[in-house]
Design a protein that fits this description.
alpha/beta; Rossmann fold; 11 strands; 2 domains; disordered N terminus; five-stranded antiparallel sheet
Length: about 350
């Protein structure tokens, strides 16, 4: 009986696979594949946002290269080759009369190994405050910081082309801060040869300045628990094979030497660091105050408008209501809460 069931399963699976392959080959002629609205997790570590508008996003798979269109509820509305899926997004914009809610766009960038859902509380509060919010999904463990920066600049070039956005700000968590710094450094003069290679992903010469930098005003950047000077924890795990596989190229670039090669942002920025209590950290492997992953001193970066240390864990700092309120205050006036334990 068990053998019979196995044969039936194998035969059925073979027929389904053959049918899917046949449909895909036929669909290649029109560059899209047959689609039923299908719920997804929104993309975790294998999808990169390559186009975005008003909560709709085109994502590209890291390995296969095929794309899909997700609506704001993460329902798949189309999939196939990128030009056709981007055309599907344009059709949705026309049919649903989509528009951005504000000309000030706040870009959210999650941390290493996380997804854009980790920034959900910030997204909700920023929208309530009147900002348009783009919560970028990127494969943090599958590509390098330079590749993440190139993805971000490409997205922002498309945003600038819509001519609906005038001002842009960034709110980042952990690795997202390095990604924002690298994106802002592309095309900027004289940050050093190594920094240019890191930020612009260029082998010999730096990439040209992104088009969006010429038309959009960068307002402010808030970095939550960023490994600004590199992470000593990542440095100690650099040659550990499981860490190399799990964290990918980006994990190798959060080390002390690599992080220092990314230029300081050329915009107004503030930093929020987490710790356990004065003089104490969460991680016994780290010296001094830390959030369990990054030491407070490792978050510092010269030129910050404000620096704020809060009792919080690295993993949850972007969900802390006090931190969220501080982020909103900094975007408005360039300082964190007046009654906070802010220190410079």
């Amino acid at each position: 009986m068990r053998t019979f069931l196995l044969c039936v399963f194998t035969w059925t699976f073979s027929l389904l696979l053959a049918a899917c392959q046949n449909s895909a080959h036929k669909a290649d002629a029109v560059d899209t594949y047959p689609n039923l609205p299908f719920p997804t997790l929104g993309g975790r570590q294998l999808w990169a946002d390559v186009n975005w508008y008003a909560g709709w996003r085109v994502q590209q798979h890291v390995w296969t290269g095929h794309c899909r269109l997700l609506d704001p509820t993460n329902m798949r509305r189309a999939w196939g080759k990128r030009p056709a899926v981007e055309d599907a997004l344009r059709q949705e914009r026309r049919q649903n009369e989509l528009h951005l809610s504000s000309n000030h766009l706040v870009v959210l960038l999650h941390g290493l190994g996380r997804s854009r859902t980790s920034m959900a509380e910030l997204q909700q509060q920023l929208r309530a405050a009147g900002y348009e919010v783009m919560d970028v999904g990127y494969p943090s463990t599958r590509r390098s910081i330079a590749e993440h920066a190139a993805q971000l600049n490409s997205l922002l070039d498309q945003i600038a082309a819509s001519e609906e956005v005038q001002t842009i700000s960034f709110v980042t968590h952990s690795l997202g801060g390095m990604m924002a710094r690298a994106a802002l450094a592309v095309g900027k003069p004289n940050p050093g040869t190594d920094a240019l290679k890191t930020a612009a992903a260029a082998d010999v010469t730096p990439a040209a300045e992104p088009q969006w930098r010429k038309s959009l005003q960068v307002h402010r950047l808030v970095m939550l628990a960023p490994p600004s000077g590199g992470s000593s924890l990542a440095q100690s795990l650099k040659n550990f094979l499981p860490f190399q596989w799990l964290a990918g190229d980006s994990g190798q670039q959060v080390t002390l030497d690599e992080a220092s090669r990314i230029p300081v942002p050329d915009c107004k920025f503030g930093i929020v660091a987490g710790y356990r209590k004065p003089g104490k950290g969460w991680n016994p492997l780290l010296e001094g105050e830390d959030d369990g992953v990054v030491r407070v001193e490792e978050t510092r970066l010269p030129g910050a408008e404000d620096f704020w240390a809060v009792p919080s864990l690295h993993t949850f700092i972007m969900e802390d209501p006090i931190v969220v309120a501080g982020v909103l205050h900094f975007l408005q006036v360039g300082k964190f809460l007046a009654d906070s334990s802010s220190e410079n």
